[in-house]
Amino acid sequence: MPGQLYDLSGKSDLALTDFSDSIKWNTHEAGVYYARGDVYEDLGQPDKAALDYAEGGKIGGNAPAKRASLCWQRAVRGRPLDRALEDCNAALKSEPDNMQWRDLRGFLYFKMGRYPDALADLDMVVKANARDAAGLFIRGIVKRRAGDVTGGNADIDAAKIADFHVADAYAVYGVAP
Q1: Low-confidence ranges of the chain (pLDDT < 50)
Q2: Cβ(91)–Cβ(64) under 8 Å?
Q3: What's the N-to-C CA distance of the chain in angstroms?
Q4: What pLDDT is recorded for position 60?
Q5: What is the predicted pLDDT for the residue at 39?
Q6: Label partner for 81 (CA 20 to 30 A): which of 111, 117, 124, 175?
Q7: What angle do CA 94, 34, 124 make, to 5 degrees?
Q8: How many helices (H) and strands (E) does the chain have?
Q9: By the 8 A CB rule, do 1 and 22 touch?
């Protein structure tokens, strides 16, 4: 979604325009309301943010899949991470064995600098699927930052074997080994 790219590059005015246009065409997508609310919050407009958050909640923004999607949006965005964690935890509460959502939370913990928590989630992801490129890649970075350079390098190498584009995919989000 262009609005997310505008938001990530600090072009709040263009992000708001894109999110508002999206809402005009599809009034039933909770994630767009939440995304626009996050931009309003960043701009110091809490009343507008609250209206968008409320509208998102009314149209199904509390369903586990929606909460997981919000977790990802906010983790990639890098803010608000406290809300992202609430979103991840809510999704996982309903489906604790969902490894995709556990992977999301592991990524979020990485972004928060909570490396032991990230490792706990990502270890579960990799245990469930030893070729999960995303889980291996982020776990590798976390291991490196936690001092296990050898283990981190092994995970990053395994991730690149599973998906040689994984490093490029995460570079878009500003994540590099």
Answers
A1: none
A2: yes
A3: 26
A4: 66
A5: 86
A6: 124
A7: 35
A8: 11, 0
A9: yes
Tell me, rounded to whole angstroms, the distance of Cα 125 from its chain centroid: 16
The secondary structure of the chain in percent helix, strand, coil, rounded to multiples of 5, reads 75, 0, 25
pLDDT of residue 61: 58
Contact 105, 88 (CB under 8 A): yes
Distance CA 20, CA 98 (A): 32
User: How far is residue 59's CA from residue 63's CA, in Å, rounded to a whole number?
Assistant: 10
**Residues in the chain, overall count:** 177
Tokens of 68: 């997981």
Q: What pTM was estimated for this model as a whole?
A: 0.78
Per-residue model confidence (pLDDT) at position 1: 59
**Spatial distance between the Cα atoms of 136 and 162, rounded to a whole number of angstroms:** 9
> Which two tokens mark 19?
């999110």
CA 51 to chain centre: 22
- Count the Cβ atoms, other than its own, within 10 Å of residue 163: 16
**Cα–Cα distance list, 176 to 63, 115, 156 (Å):** 32, 16, 11
Which residues have C-beta within 8 Å of that of residue 20, sequence separation ≥ 6? 36
